[in-house]
Every structure is written in C-alpha cells, then in structure tokens.
Fold this sequence. Notes:
CATH superfamily of the largest domain: Deoxyuridine triphosphatase (dUTPase)
Structural class: mainly beta
Oligomer: single chain
Number of strands: 29
Amino acid sequence: xxxxxxxxxxxxxxxxxxxxxxxxxxxxxxxxxxxxxxxxxxxxxxxxxxxxxxxxxxxxxxxxxxxxxxxxxxxxxxxxxxxxxxxxxxxxxxxxxxxxxxxxxxxxxxxxxxxxxxxxxxxxxxxxxxxxxxxxxxxxxxxxxxxxxxxxxxxxxxxxxxxxxxxxxxxxxxxxxxxxxxxxxxxxxxxxxxxxxxxxxxxxxxxxxxxxxxxxxxxxxxxxxxxxxxxxxxxxxxxxxxxxxxxxxxxxxxxxxxxxxxxxxxxxxxxxxxxxxxxxxxxxxxxxxxxxxxxxxxxxxxxxxxxxxxxxxxxxxxxxxxxxxxxxxxxxxxxxxxxxxxxxxxxxxxxxxxxxxxxxxxxxxxxxxxxxxxxxxxxxxxxxxxxxxxxxxxxxx
Length: 397
C-alpha cells in the first residue's frame, strides 16, 4: 500500500481508510471512533448546529457557508439534549469530518441503512460542488449534510451518525459482464421463501431485485401517519407498531398509495463476497415516479455470516398510486450494483459487515438467522427443491 492508502483501483477498504485518517486526509473536530470505520465506508457525525433552510441548494462556484446567508432561516443548537427536526422541512448540518483527499481519490455518500429505513432523506453537499452525494477527486474542505425527515418528526443531537462516506479510486463499478462472471465464481443471489426452480435474477446495468407477492408472508411495512416524536438518540424505546403497519399483498398484487412510504421485503436474498462492495441504485424516472431506495451501501461480506438477509427496498410513490407488477417488480428500478475493492491479498480483505439496528426500525427481527441455504454453481435454487434445480443470473431480454 502506498503513502496515500491506495494499492489498486476500487472502493477503499477499512485498512486504507485507517491510513487516510492517520495521515490527516480524513480528519474530525473529535477523535474518529473505531466503531465509525466500516469495512468499506466511514460513518459521518453530525456537528453542533443545524440550519433551517428555505429550500435545498447546491453551492455551484461558492462555498457552502457563503450560501447559508442566503438560504438559512434559523440556527438550531444540537448540543446537550439535541433538537427536534420537523417533517418535510430541509435542514443543513455541518458534519464534524473534514476531507483533504489525495489526487486520484473521490467519494460517494449515502444514508445509513437505519436512516433510510426511517424515511429520513439525507444527502451531502460540498464546497463548490455541483452534485449531491458526490465528493470530487482530491476534494479539500468541509462536508455538509442536508436532512429532511419525511415520514416522522425526529430528534437528533450532535455526534450521531446518519450517513456514510465511501472512497474509491479508478473504475470501481462492475460491468454487467463482470457481474455475471462474479455470480458464476462466487454466487451473490440466494432463494427467498417463495422462490421457485428456474427463477432468473435479471441483470441490466446492475442486478434487479423483486418484491415477494406470494402471500406466504407479509410483504413489508407502511409508515404510519401522525406518530409520536422519534428520538434517534434513544435505544430500545419504541415498538415497531408505534410507527409502522404491516402490508399484505392481495391476489398477488400490491397497490402503493400516493405519497406513502414503504419497506418492501425482497424476494431474493443477497450476499456480497468479501472482496466486493455494492450499492442500491437510484430509481429510473422513465419507469415511473417512484423512489426505490434510500440507503445504498452494502458492505463486503454482507450476508456471509448467518442467513442471506432479504433486502428491504425503500419505496415511495411520489405523486400517483403505483402498482407492483405480478413479477414483484415495482414500476421503478430497485437494483444492486457491484463495486470491486482496492485489495491485493486475501489477508487484506474486510470479511463481514457489522449489523446495525435502530429502535423504531421494522427491519428488526424480520430476517431469519442461520438458515442453511443450498446453492447451485450459478446463482441460486430454492430451499424446498433439490440441488439439481438451478436458477441463474441472466441478461434482460
């Protein structure tokens, strides 16, 4: 590994992130705790104040703090017991971390999985940045997090983490051909409870996921309206039923209400090999006005320990009712894209992700642990079938 924490092209793993921290390329106003350094990302922490905004903005050719004089309506103290952030109101929070990236290193940010599952919309902006959630090559400066609570009124305080930063060099993204080849060597898709022999996982600019409409179990959850305050500083303080209601398919169909937020259990189970990472891709507006993800990052080793956990697509039908098709695919893209890690030896690989749980989050307890799954050479087969039944990963035709 060279002095910049880089060795090969791809997403930087935990050990490379540690090098960048040690060399001051990633710094913070407080010591960065070890628990914030994930296998292929770093959790970012909220600063001491939040600015209530008139509207969202990108700084363009300006510094973010220069634009705050134009867009900020109020300054809110997040120290002590924290502060309440109201639904559907944009806030901007300076993060404690600061970057001084080496040339050739760039970044992407995404909400943490618990943040997305609670329908808290977040995205990062940078000084003189023209895109949300993108950190340009060699960036030096502060990071700012836009936060919009969508379904629940929340309480936050300084030091908690709502989003993650992933750093990379070169071309990290796998092509469809590389994804197909990976599935042959190291399977990434496994059966769900309703899978059948001959099921095909579809690849088209990434791997498509579908929703389980078999009726063998509930399909997911819908966020309730007019709930109590959700304090993100607390643990083991809420029941799932305080904030969520179960959603059941009817005759193999599911209608998504306009403006409603859903957590839908995927039909497939996903496993990320230890020397790869992944990300849920954004929705495709040509397929319908439906946002089909919030939290994007999958760590190396996701699903490698215990059960291959079902993915929970975070789905919102923005303006109109939407129909989930008979094949389980919503009218928008819920797909997985793979990234290679910047690694050189097996000993350097990050082996597993650390499961996180946030109180009030219905993902708690929905995934069975430790179930053995017999797998075929390519892709997956159902637990009820014999190993001779195979399904694969194929191209969209």
